[in-house]
Amino acid sequence: MIAFVRGPVAAIGLDSCVIEVGGVGLQLYCHPGTLATLRPGQEFKLATSMVVREDSLTLYGFADADEKELFELLQTASGVGPKLAQAALAVLSPDQLRQAVAHEDLAMLVKIPGVGKKVAQRLVLELKDKIGAPSRVVAGRPLHSSEAWREQVHAGLVGLGWSARDADDAVIAVSPLAADSTEPSVPDLLRAALRALSKA
Question: Taking every annotated instance into account, which residue ranges of this chain make up the domain Helix-hairpin-helix DNA-binding motif class (predicted)?
Answer without folding.
Answer: 72-91, 107-126
